[in-house]
User: Fold these one by one.
Assistant:
Number 1:
Amino acid sequence: MINKIGKIVVDRDLCIGAASCIAIAPEVFQLDEENKAIVVNPKRADDETILLAAKSCPTKAIIVFDEEGNQLYP
Ligand code: SF4
């Protein structure tokens, strides 16, 4: 059972612009002008998709928290 996702953070120092998160959840993640992922809308994909996107990141730059602020991933 997956807790409800409350917050998604992209660590800009870790992000290498690989864009696999965007391939999986384009409604949630986009690349900005520095080729770093930004969260455009955390509510536009279901929790499972967001976790898949986070797990697809080769540098584990996507940090996912539940609504209580507990870290779900990584
Ligand atoms: S998958 Fe990771 S490294 Fe690639 S754009 Fe997304 S956050 Fe950045």
Number 2:
Amino acid sequence: MQDHRIRKLVIVGGGTAGWMAAAALRRHFHGGPLEITLVESEAIGTVGVGEATIPTIRGFYQQLGLSDIEVMRATQATCKLGIRFNGWLREGQSFIHPFGHFGQDLRGVPFHHYWRKLAQAGEPTDIADYSLGASLAAAGKFMAPPRNPTSTLSIFDWALHFDAGLFAQLMRRVAEDNGVRRIEGKITKVKLRPEDGFVAGLDLESGETVEGDLFIDCSGFRGLLIEEALHTGYESWSDLLFCDRAWAVQSEGLDNPPPYTDVTAHSAGWRWRIPLQHRYGNGYVFSSRHIRDEDALAELKAAVPDPLLHEPRLIHFNPGRRKQVWNKNVIALGLASGFLEPLESTSIALIETGIEKIKALFPDRDFAPELADEFNDWSRREMERVRDFIILHHFVRYRWEMFAPPSWMAIYAGFEMLPEAVDPSLDGVDPKALSAPLAEMRKAVREVVASAPPHQAFLDQYCRPAAAASSAAE
Ligand SMILES: Cc1cc2nc3c(=O)[nH]c(=O)nc-3n(C[C@H](O)[C@H](O)[C@H](O)COP(=O)(O)OP(=O)(O)OC[C@H]3O[C@@H](n4cnc5c(N)ncnc54)[C@H](O)[C@@H]3O)c2cc1C
């Protein structure tokens, strides 16, 4: 039997996507004959943003053998319990989208029906008071979730805010330590095989040629292989998502970073504020159809309270997705595969799921078209559903989607878009009988929050980069 296995995997680009793929795939194919080479150009650089994550990132680096504390120390990270939305519904109003549950389901009926029924009976309460994650975040506190939660009231999850450059460096260290070969150099030409148009190799400015069987395009928005060489095509969603530019700037940090990302509505978009241990990341994502660049910049500068660390950078983007993420022998990952405004910090999570798909559908040199079809279909549905969560049009749960019902609930409640009807099985329940058990739930959440340490105390104890801190939390 002929051996058709992929022998040479070439990753193009050394941003977050490239080094995450290199670290994870090297580990996955450990000990086998696969050679992995990564080509990047320091002269071109990386996009340099992408600092807020969702909890799946923790599973990703744990698979690489890294603990939370190791990653937090290496990347100046802080804890993220969720996202606080400010001024989206009206001036002065805020709500938190936590990574976790709200309340306890009773008799198999989801909690929010009881919560609505109590409100309709004249006792409105804040949904956040039933969420430990949201309540800890609002109080500026942090503790690790209990390993064996005794009730859904104590279930919450957390993610990180990290320095994107330091995270890519960490991934590079893991990848290189495990045998990934790095080539520094600018790719000047992508060579195609005349017989089938597959990518044969990459010419570098140095004169070197890098050949491969399979190429992972992590070259950023331009899509050096997937688009510039293979002309795959891009489906723009600019009719659904108007934002197409961002000003990004880092500012000096303060003590007591909040354990959440702030996203604040602005005149033509929204502003992020991401706390790290040593600084903040800030940015204004806006629609160029509704505001001029210089006016957006002025709004951002006026809103950032601390001294800026450099001149703000303007980033252009086109919301949407590559029509085929896998085309011939090229798979696009990261910004090369598409981009949605970072309102829910989904890009890095999509890199993780992209890597999982590569592992699950890894081809041989015959490149069975069914594998690419499956990969492309899966990627399309996933990206469309993240898009829908961002524009919040639907309320249907699919097995494979990234955001679970409590996330949809958090956003609907925050926007005060609430159903009139409650589950008919509650028709026989006296609303007065709900008052006491729901008050008990709020009390249980309050008591845990009161005993939790401030976020800053947690960072000081475990996560200072140079500290020889105890690893009790690991
Ligand atoms: C404004 C903004 C805010 C964001 N915020 C978040 C967030 O909070 N959370 C989140 O999850 N994601 C966020 N993202 C997305 C996140 O930044 C990206 O998903 C992540 O950084 C991955 O980027 P990348 O590695 O695909 O591309 P890049 O960082 O652009 O890397 C491209 C690589 O390709 C190399 N390259 C390109 N051309 C060549 C060539 N000719 N020769 C050799 N090398 C080449 C470059 O040198 C570089 O190494 C944000 C994105 C934007 C634009």
Number 3:
Amino acid sequence: MKQVQMTKLPVYSFETAEAINQLRVNLSFTDQDCRAVVVTSSLPDEGKSFVSVALWRALSEVGKKTLLIDCDLRLSKLMERYGIIAETPLIGVSHVLSGQNDWQDAVYETDVINGCIMPVTSIVTNPSILLESRRLGRMIEEAKKQFDLILIDTPPIISVADALTVCKNADASIMTVRSGKTKKSVVKDCIKRLQMTGKPVLGVVLNRVDTGNHHYGYYYYGYRNNPYISEEKK
Ligand SMILES: Nc1ncnc2c1ncn2[C@@H]1O[C@H](COP(=O)(O)OP(=O)(O)OP(=O)(O)O)[C@@H](O)[C@H]1O
Ligand SMILES: [Mg+2]
């Protein structure tokens, strides 16, 4: 398999590493069939990409063969943010979805043992059409045969339908919510939209919590059995 280097992988604070580890453990309690999990949120900047990458690393580091698929075909920042470099021009998700390449051609091993990525390598003019292609579902199903877990980073739900389209083709989703910023009504509306895809929302990650010492924290709420967005608050 081809390789990329991730030259800017961050070192997480103790609190962040702990919270992500908790999220990883919670994920392991879910149904065995939930192996392709979408990470999404209502609005931009809620930490979808941050949580996707941190969780992907945590899963890989405990020996799970994990694939991170970047499905933010509009504004992906992963290549730049994590300093992803390779010796040859990269084939990415849009090459696969447009039928130019097989899905395996866009999968790269990384510096993270057990962790592979499928990056966005080019800007496309028609992301929605690409994501609506049957190739997306096929690609995820094929990848599930070779990976223990697949995490899929997406754009925010409020502005475009992309995340919901991806969710339909995955097994489940996790919502990130920016603490102190995103309105509860917006979160609830987006959870309803996610549920309309027929796939379970596994939980909500309350992200970017100001813990007072400049560390951002996370709290994870199992959506089904946690009072965070309970029936009486709906
Ligand atoms: N828990 C966290 N700890 C530290 N920094 C964070 C955390 N969550 C997010 N950030 C930072 O906040 C910014 C926005 O996060 P990120 O890009 O992951 O959001 P996003 O929801 O993926 O945004 P977009 O909708 O544009 O894709 C980034 O600079 C990221 O590094
Ligand atoms: Mg993002």
Number 4:
Amino acid sequence: MIRAVLLWASRDPWLGRSLPRRRFVRRASRRFMPGEGKNDALRVAENLKRDGINAILTLLGENVASPEEVDAVVEEYEEVLARLEGSDLDVQISVKPTQLGLDFDARLALDRILHLASRAREAGSFVWIDMEDSSYREATLCLFEQAVERSGPEYVGLCLQAYLRSTEEDLERLLPLSPTLRFVKGAYAERAEVAFSSRKEVDEAFFHLTTRVFAADGAVAIATHDSRLVARLRRWIDDHPGTQFEYEIQMLYGIRPEEQVRLAQEGEPVRVLISYGPAWFPWYMRRLAERPANIWFVVKNLFRG
Ligand SMILES: Cc1cc2nc3c(=O)[nH]c(=O)nc-3n(C[C@H](O)[C@H](O)[C@H](O)COP(=O)(O)OP(=O)(O)OC[C@H]3O[C@@H](n4cnc5c(N)ncnc54)[C@H](O)[C@@H]3O)c2cc1C
């Protein structure tokens, strides 16, 4: 129930305009977002590096409505990539297709992905394509397929959601491209026809999808804070000695930071996704929806202020 309300709030335009102006909401959001500018995000990336953790930067925002807004997003990512050139940071970027114009011009979105992939290659970086709600699934798969066909699989990867019933089939469709994939459980409110609703089914799907990529010698990002799932996958890897699996564990900034450091200290490759930018409200509501206990954080900040 609380989850449904928070996901509804993430889409409500009035709340999206008024709540971010409240100081206590802004303060509470700092737990998951170091600030609104790329300097804030890059500063955190430098700190993480000291703990042996790499980073991904993502500019918050989705569903842009004009080519001018797409240009502004691309310019921001170009500036991030320019800052990485010659630096010793291992930082990638992650983009939402609707942030690059997928809602109104799929060719523009593809063109901008290819442009960012080419800039990422020059900067020694990499571009992840996020997966948004299931209404964008097919268009996003096509975008990724075309990007890989045109630029190769080395500089662009795709996020797939384990909660979607269709993901197993999508994975088989993509495997011939030797893709780099990120598996997540999935963050949107989806209908039971398209998505598994029980946690057990989602976790099983996550495990099977990941091991399927391992069996096909593919590269995979295990993007979850679920320690039991990570431990199960690590056991599966240990049960296959002599085989090198290409993977890393990805988590979000501010969620289980002690676990991120612990895994890195154990020698696991860990990468943390740092979100930043002024358009943080819908994204923040989705983080609260994942774990309604986080609302206490907002309430505590209300009383602190
Ligand atoms: C790098 C990365 C990229 C992502 N990209 C996408 C994407 O493109 N599309 C998409 O739909 N989703 C994306 N997600 C979000 C993902 O779908 C999940 O919603 C999110 O990761 C939470 O699920 P979980 O796998 O951690 O498992 P859960 O079972 O939800 O959580 C496991 C444990 O982690 C902790 N935890 C999880 N979430 C929170 C939280 N918000 N606050 C505090 N503790 C928490 C809790 O201890 C919980 O018990 C991404 C996640 C990551 C890490």
